[in-house]
Design brief:
By secondary structure, this protein is α/β, with parallel strands linked by helices. It is built from 7 helices and 7 strands. It has one domain: Rossmann fold. 43% of the residues lie in helices and 15% in strands. Helix 5 links the parallel strand 5 and strand 6. Helix 3 packs parallel to helix 4 and helix 4 packs parallel to helix 5. The longest helix is centred in the middle third of the chain and has 29 residues. Belongs to the short-chain dehydrogenases/reductases (SDR) family. This is 3-oxoacyl-ACP reductase. It comes from Acrocarpospora pleiomorpha.
Length: 253
């Protein structure tokens, strides 16, 4: 197993991406520490992991709560010996469909504040243990990695938030590399299977995402889980400060 014996903390583990990551990590032998704000949904993911023979622990906390994030990471390290993988995929409550010129400051700021604060707090909590261990992998998620604005759809502060997280990821890699800690991004350009059936802009967004790809399909949640396992494993031990392109050819690099 590629991740045998490792401890992986997944923030936002009950969401679609979080579930894909958690189940993939567990499948490859990691003990997954499922973090979120709702115990019931976390328990459902944990039950799924355990039913498949995996190891799962749950913790109810808010990834925006500095003290709670630090205390949980410390508890994982104290109880299980290490923090080996950390990934934050909490929802960032973005407001889409309204042009920036018509958007309220609150709606614009919200995704930026949530994304940068939660990413900073969760990565800092993990990094303190990874520095001591001289090893570890921090993963970020979201966007396409191309750094281009969205031309055909009003996306609010989301793109700004994702690019802020991407720069934070590169700075973390520069500072943590000397300690053997790797920091990588997972970029999909959007996962269409996660769009609600009753979402008014579902067809337009699907066409926009798929239309940019070379493979004429979007990445799936399973794709994300598989690539994340590779990124967190020793197979990728020489990779840091870069992104893994899961955009099906929407972005070339």
């Amino acid at each position: 197993m590629l991740l045998d014996g490792r401890n992986a903390i997944v923030y936002g583990a009950a969401g679609q991406v979080g579930t894909a990551l958690a189940t993939a990590f567990a499948r490859e032998g990691a003990r997954v520490h499922l973090v979120g704000r709702t115990g019931k949904t976390l328990g459902e993911v944990a039950d799924r992991v355990r039913a498949d023979g995996g190891l799962a622990e749950t913790a109810v906390l808010d990834a925006l709560d500095e003290a709670a994030v630090d205390e949980h990471a410390d508890a994982v390290a104290a109880s299980w010996g290490s923090v080996d993988i950390s990934v934050n995929v909490i929802g960032i409550e973005d407001a889409q469909g309204t042009p920036l010129a018509e958007m309220s400051l609150e709606d614009f700021e919200r995704p930026i504040r949530i994304a940068t604060r939660s990413t900073f707090l969760t990565t800092r909590a993990a990094a303190r243990h990874m520095i001591r261990q001289r090893s570890g992998v921090i993963l970020t998620f979201g966007g396409d990695g191309g750094g281009e604005p969205i031309r055909d759809y009003a996306i609010g502060g989301l793109q700004v938030a994702l690019n802020a997280v991407d720069f934070l990821r590169r700075q973390l890699a520069a500072e943590l590399g000397a300690y053997g800690v790797r920091v990588l991004a997972l970029h999909t350009g959007g996962i269409t299977e996660g769009l609600p059936e009753d979402f008014a802009a579902r067809e337009a967004i699907t066409d926009m995402i798929v239309g940019k790809t070379m493979l004429k399909r979007a990445a799936t949640f399973a794709d994300v889980g598989n690539v994340a396992v590779f990124a967190a494993s020793d197979l990728a031990r020489s990779m840091t400060a870069t992104s893994l392109n899961i955009t099906a050819g929407a972005v070339t690099n």
